[in-house]
Amino acid sequence: MTYRAKNLGIGIGLRVPHIAHIIANRPKVDFFEIISENYMVDGGPPRENLDRILEHYPVVQHGVSLSIASAEDVDFTYLKKLKTLCKHTKTPWFSDHLCWTRCSSHNYHDLLPIPYTAEYADFIAEKARIVQDFMEIPFALENLSSYVAFDNSEMPEWEFYQRVIDKSGTYMMFDVNNVYVSAVNHQFDPMAYLKHIDYSRVLQCHVAGHTELPNGTLLDTHNHPVKDIVWEMYRYVYQQTGGVSTILEWDADFLTFDQTMAQANIAREYQDAGQDVHVCKR
């Protein structure tokens, strides 16, 4: 049975430079997204600040260290800590990335890519199923921005992504900017990606800005305004979902809180389902 996620509205990632302002001023925000690992501690300032945020705002959890695509077994020590935090925040779902971050117990602190093969998709799907069953709340996997491709890939990214979700019974944290970054870097049509997604499985969306290198490569840096072409893609995604919780990610070269929320609220301009969407590769 498919979980029907409530549309929480538009929010931003909760980041340290903004916390004092939020606590002092209680600005109007639909919800915040936290990086789970920053709060998987027993106490101290991070948890104290989180509790003050939870008094006034819904919070959803987004992780960076699950390493679902690694060859290692599911880390239940990590999951137990994560589950405790999920119960504390009452997050309606939790998410992490369709990637690997660990090998031989070493954490590389990066979101590392994978080949798109049927065998690998099925391997990841079984781990994802185990994770969701253990956590007892919906689990969403996020598509990556990609900078390398593998010779042994058997299918396009969107087919691989959908296969993992379908076989595991999990959900999608759909990052629109990551689709565009990968499309430019690997020279495919981003709309081909968007048209092959089962939007009933999308629980939440991310939008963010990126950086273009002199050679044309795009990097998912989260330190620039969202490009118009990404907003147009978001319009299509929003229409297909019928309305989806949306987070603006901004993780470097921070703006003020009010400036960041102004960037996030641009999403409202693109939620009008009455307009056609035209997206090209660049």
- Summarize model confidence as the mean pLDDT: 92
Structural domains: how many: 1
What proportion of the residues form beta strands (DSSP E)?
15-25%
Output the radius of gyration: 18 Å
**Distance between termini?**
38 Å
What string gives the helices and strands in order? EHEHEHEEEHEHEHHEEEHEH
Based on helices, strands and strand pairing, what is the structural class? alpha/beta
Question: Could you characterize the architecture of this molecule?
Answer:
The chain is α/β, with parallel strands linked by helices and 282 residues long. It has one domain (10-270): Divalent-metal-dependent TIM barrel enzymes (TIM Barrel, Alpha-Beta Barrel), CATH 3.20.20.150. 36% of the residues lie in helices and 18% in strands. It has helices spanning 16-25, 45-54, 76-89, 118-135, 157-168, 176-186, 190-194, 228-241, 257-264, and strands spanning 10-13, 32-35, 59-62, 94-97, 100-103, 106-112, 139-142, 171-175, 202-208, 211-212, 218-219, 245-249. An 8-stranded parallel β-barrel has the order 1-2-3-4-7-8-9-12, surrounded by 4 helices. The longest helix is centred in the middle third of the chain and has 18 residues, at 118-135. It is globular and about 50 Å long. It starts with 9 loop residues before the first strand and ends in an 18-residue tail after the last helix. The relative contact order is 0.14.
Explain briefly what this protein structure is:
This protein has 282 residues and is an alpha/beta fold. Helix content is 36%, strand content 18%. It has one domain: Divalent-metal-dependent TIM barrel enzymes (TIM Barrel).
